[in-house]
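pasting input
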Amino acid sequence: MDKTSAICCRGLVKDYGALRAVNGLDLEVRAGECFGLLGPNGAGKTTTVEILEGLLPATGGTVEILGHTWSSGADSLRQRLGVSLQETNLPDKLTVEEILRLFRSFYASGPDAQDLLDAVSLTDKRRTWYSKLSGGQKQRLAVACALAGDPEVLFLDEPTTGLDPQSRRQLWGLIERLKAEGRTILITTHNMDEAQRLCDRVAIIDKGKVLALGAPRELIQSLGGTEVVEFTCDELVEEGSVSALPGVHAVKRGPDGLFLTVEQLHKTLPLLLSHLQQTGRTLTRLATHHATLEDVFVNLTGRQLRD
Amino acid sequence: MKSITRTVDPQHPLWQLTLMRWRIFVREPAAVFWTYVFPLVLALALGIAFRNRPPDPVEVAVQTAPGAEAWRDALAKDPAIHVHWLDARQAHDALRSGKVFVVVAAGAPRTYEFDPTRPESRMARAIVDDALQRAEGRADATPVKDRLVTEPGSRYIDFLVPGLLGFNLMSSGMWGVGFVVVEMRMRKLIKRMTATPMSRAHFLLSFVLVRAIFLLGELPLLLAFAYWVFNVPVRGSLLLIVAISTLGSLAFAGMGLLIGSRAQNTHTAAGLVNAVTLPMLVCSGVFFSAARFPEIFQPLIRALPLTALIEGVRAVMLDGAGLAAVAAYMAILLVWGAVSFIIALRLFRWQ
């Protein structure tokens, strides 16, 4: 394993009875990078992260965090990691500051409560009960708790799920600052914008396996085109009949019709329309967009991420 | 944030955890009520319901018949006897419905009608016969004198206060620890905390510690209330009562942890708490003496932590017992506390 890797796992397997939640997963997160685990609900993201965090035992495979394993170095590792679980319900009737003091007391060193409050912009809420915070404020507090030990590695499991767009952007700003401080961040999400904006590299995960790995831009480029055309017709259109059109890189059947990946929309779209007209099909839906990580997932699995 | 100096916070995690439990408790009005106010309300209600009253008069019916007037007049002279002058049928009905305890019927010999399975009837027969025999000239073989004893320390309320104290320590310990632990597990708070370097022993110990702190409020409140309102005495050492109660509190906190160590949801936890506390509530002598149960169950009942706690406190409070007399009770509590804590630490489900 590379010396500069902060998180490394090989052949990770986790079974829940007969169900295999993680199925031979390999990951390597380099020190200082922001790495995204991207996948639909039930893909095994949270299970993987909780194994990496030392909260769940793996059925098989090896895990090394900062060069240590959980079996030998758990106590010293915990001092160097920060964790934000997918759902954390902190005590309703404790104030923001009391919660931060509690979490800070578990670590040998770290910023004091005031610094943590400043870092997540909750200083004016310091005497507010947890139950009275908004969703975004609760998530920021969860991140602040994860920062209580001034961690080298930060695990953020779906930090923005369920938040309104403004709170989400505020949290992204916070994560970008943490990244700029040189921390290694592992973030799970099923939000494409989030992964594209924050992550240096992402692993697309489905059914407990890594389907694709790389920088978001590389993954999108691997589609061969940067524009996507989605359409549905009154009658079935064969994939083969449109894949031969000039400028079409890939065709995939999705839940609502066909997805074409094209390089230049203005050249390929007119050809597609006339082809459909000649073959006697009538369009019932047509949409185009810039290719995203979502399209990478659709291209790999034929399913949408948010299914 | 890396540039910020790494100042060492002087606050110890065990203290912070205990503080957390304390804050959550005092910010929950219902918890404060059940722990501090409810026992006082219960003591007040039961103290009033079972207060000592002057003895009820003995209700006697004398059947109307020639010659029975003399009996009626003789009985009426005794202030402890209340005489009804009824015909045979009325007298029989009054006896059957419990309005009178005994009927004096004319005839040769004089007949007492009563139900021997009713204790008050048997007593009434003895009192009535005694009064009539005396009026008819019977002399006592040996002169005797009565000294009446109705003093604090031997009334029902005196018996009840140590029982309520034990009951309160048990239920607040079991619910306040067992139920709360499971609630924290359901909220994934335990999982979140185990993702930090927090010591697991500190986490469990904070529950036990905070129970000891609550006790310092519960105990003086109930004892002072009982003293001011009902004049319930504390004959032995107050310090010894605090010591027994502390051990009791720790025993129940340990048992609460054990109950909460595996349960995945609060329904299971509530069922377990009830399954453990209700039998003790009945058997351990909270409201009536545990000695009423058959001899064969006594060793079992005496080994229960609630019995040990209540009997220990009762012995010190009411009989002024010393350390030697209650050491066995304290040992029982210590064993319950230590064994449950150790098992809980091993069984505890952290995820």
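fyi DSSP finds eleven helices and 13 strands in chain A.
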